[in-house]
Amino acid sequence: MTIPTSSIEQVIPGQGSMAQPQRAKRRSFRFVANKKAATGLIILGVYLVLAVIGPWITPYDPGARGNDLVQPPSADHWMGTTHLGQDVFSQLLAGTRSVIFVGFFAGIVATVLSVVIGVTAGYVGGKTDEALSALSNVFLVIPALPLIIIITSTLENAEDSLIALVIGLTSWSWNARVLRAQTLSLRRRDFVEAARASGERTWRVIGFELLPNLTAVIASGFVGTVIFAVLSEITLAFIGVTSATTWNWGTILFWAQGQQALAQSAWWWFVPAGLAIAILGTALSLINFGIDEFVSPRLRSAGKTKIKTASGRTVRMRIGFTPVLDNRAQHSHATPTPVVRQEVVQ
Amino acid sequence: MKYFLQRLAFYLFTAWAAITLNFFIPRMIPGDPVQALITKYQGQLSSQAIDSLYVLFGLDKDAGLWSEYVSYWKQLFSGDLGLSFTFFPTPVSEIISNSLPWTLLLVGITTIISFFLGTGLGILAGWRRGSWTDGLLPVTTFLSSVPYFWLGIIAIYLLTGPDSFFPSSGGFDNGLVPAFDQYFIPSAIQHSLLPALTILISSVSGWILSMRNMMVTVSSEDYITVAHAKGLTDRRVAMSYAARNALLPNVSGFALSLGFIVGGTLLVEIVFSYPGVGFQLFQALGASDYPLMQGIFLIITISVLVANLLADIAYLLLDPRTRKEG
Amino acid sequence: MSQPVIEIRNLNVGYGLGDQGVRAVRDVNLTLHRGEVLGLAGESGSGKSTLAYGMTRLLAPPGVITGGEVIYHPEQGDPYDVLSLSDSQLRKFRWNETAIVFQGAMNSLNPVHKIATQLTDVLKAHEPKMSETQRNARAREMLKLVGIAPDRMDAYPHQLSGGMRQRVMIGMALILQPQVVIMDEPTTALDVVMQRQILGQLIELRERLGFSVIFITHDLSLLVEFSNRIAIMYGGRIVEEAPASAIYRDALHPYSKGLLGSFPALKGPRRELTGIPGSPPDLKGMPSGCSFHPRCPKAFDPCGSEIPMLENRPDNRSVACWLVNS
């Protein structure tokens, strides 16, 4: 519903139904025109800004104790206070940086790994492919979160960057798998075959022919990993594996859970952090839906299943039953329905 | 059959990789908490138990890495996962065998229900685009972004209380002894409802979304048009042609994402203090109970591998193209 | 000639509506007579497939039928408009009266069901009184008819070659003995030998069973050989309609001549291949006047401004061209 100019040409039989790789560049700016992606990007932008300025604009020191213990939201404390009188809003603001940092750092680590492993496996093929595929499949089926928990629990008071590294190193496999499949199919396309046949060096073919056409897949994998990394970091903090003194949203939940916030009905203590996670996750998912619809136009027309005719009636688009517009009725008045059996007969 | 054997070989290989990983991780532990424990319980530990801990944690500086590795395997095959620190001197294997059934029942059943429910709703949403099912999509997107454990906290906050039907923690009423009788089983079911609901709500949305997208993709295949042209009923086209084909990638997706799902569901146990392996893992973490952590990671991994193998067999039965010609 | 089976009257088919809509089939009038093979030719984008899918209401979204009638004359009873049928009436009509053999044999068969299932589910839907044994016997009979060993009933589509799959499709199309079979590029995916073998077989079956055929292809030489009459489409309109031999001997429209010059003839004297300069028009920006005029070697004054109408000529053919129509 958002990219009308291109949706028509994608569905007319006999014309190309997939995005032409050569046109990837020209079309890329249209991605932002996708409503879902735009919404997601705007929300993500807000989070990014807060990640930078958050720790500076907190009304209180997030760790500073106060005299108002476990108070509901008020003008002084927008999101109430903790058992030590700390300001929840300040903790939330201060925690944004760590969450975004770990999410993006882990995302970058995992994306770089997945590109290197996935593209190499798909492009080189043979024994290398078999070995790398086996490696990514092993990492795929081993439950990632328990593995991350086990590893980080052996590291005492790990820094954010170390945690991000562990998450990144254990969560690249899904993307590597997707990228390998995409590379395999791209490698058989004419323009890649041509570049190979004309003696282009491997790194040039990969860098200039393959990677530009894998952008959407890589981006979508990156966004997916960021979601996973954010959830993992928060989980680690929540179960108390990582340091409880550097603030992130999981730390807030850790204290809330540990100090019986539930039993005290202190909803303001755990609701904001959870919502912050959920909204960030939703924003990232929206970006990924945008990418999906951008890559496969079949998903795109989802919103356009009902159309209005000139006479104001709505007609539903259905597979297998092409709508017949009602203004046809006026037409059949002109040629009355009793059918005359003669035509241009021989 | 060949396909099946290939998969089996792969899972054996993965199990080997996971166990080897499990062998090396403890060797990275800084300091020596194990040595400290051994010293603490000097008088109560049998020499055999000390040996087993040495092998598990690589404290035996005299032995080479390889011989440690060999004895580690020997120990695994005899079912010895070491002794738990928290519940000293209970063997880890005993703790796990007590908590594993809880997890298998809760997570296993809920995951399967979630898959079928989500797939069913996804079929509806994908087939009848533009109907009320489209309204599910924004809600499901939001729900799938919520951490499982947070949803559990909210569920406890909103639905439990002194007068509520739902208990807020535990796996059964205090004062009951686990047994298959008319007192224990209803109590266990009552305690599992809320955790199950939490897992269901947060995991079902993923299946709805993926099945819907597969339905949309499959709907434009030629054989769907043929099915319509044949004048088959809408139901037959939707189920036997569209959904039947859309199911295939969803089943393989199910197998592949089990590792992710299980990780999240274990946390629900923590929030609800449910006596499964997730909660045990949480307690082990709090007490730096390394043998128990190692054992739980191992058992989770192996369970996921077995579940994967089952999903592969389902796929084998669903897709004739993977069967051997004959 | 004999009675009409299908009369298409002023059919208009488009993609999308309003500002973004395009018209793919414009004011098409076409009659299929009982027992005849009517060829429909044109380049890709000429609207020939859209016409075929539009008249059966099988066009995928965003296809819309914006006007016209498709009058069907059953063997017994009064003629009716296919486009006015309700969903359930249309389901009954489909395959019973008109069957379709689709473009590309690869994807027309459902990959997860056996050939037998796909042949018999038609019978299940249309002949509910048949027993399973009867259905299987009928399916076996159809396979024999198209030259496939009946023991292939239990094969899956991926176990058959492309030619065999297309034969299965033809057998499936004839299973209810329809009056009309629409074939949309039925043999493009096959090699030349297989193409002619299958078409030859189909023509022979037509003589035996007495159905009519609408044969859609871009390959005019195939049409000249296998059809009675040919209609040539360009830019969504029929530009020429005439007996096959007349088109071959002396095509009136410059576009028909161009098309004929693009393919080597299978029979008759050798000709020079010429082709048509330029490319088919964009549906979004159809040229004014005769849509072929930018590519037409003989375009003159009125061509760019006025649309030529399809006019009947005394020699039983019709053409839409200012050169011929005065």
Widest sheet, order of strands of chain A? 1-2
Helix count of chain B equals: 12
Query: Greatest contact pair?
Result: A-B, 60 and 67 residues
Q: What is the overall number of helices of chain A?
A: 13
- State the CATH architecture of chain A: Orthogonal Bundle
Order of helices and strands of chain B: HHHHHHHHHHHH
- What structural class should be given to the helix and strand makeup of chain B? mainly alpha
**How many DSSP E strands of chain A?**
2
Task: Please characterize this protein's 3D structure.
The complex is a heterotrimer of chains A (about 350), B (about 325) and C (about 325). With about 350 residues, chain A is mostly helical. In chain A, about 65% of the residues lie in helices and about 0% in strands. Chain A has a two-stranded antiparallel sheet with strand order 1-2. Chain A has 13 helices and 2 strands; from the N terminus they run ααααααααααααββα. Chain B has about 325 residues and is mainly alpha-helical. Chain B contains 12 helices and no strands. Chain B has helices spanning about 1-25, 35-40, 45-55, 65-75, 90-125, 135-145, 150-160, 185-220, 220-230, 235-270, 275-285, 290-320. With about 325 residues, chain C is α/β, with parallel strands linked by helices. The mean pLDDT of chain C is about 85. At the A-B interface, helix 5, helix 6, helix 10, helix 11 and helix 12 of A face helix 1, helix 6, helix 7, helix 8 and helix 9 of B.
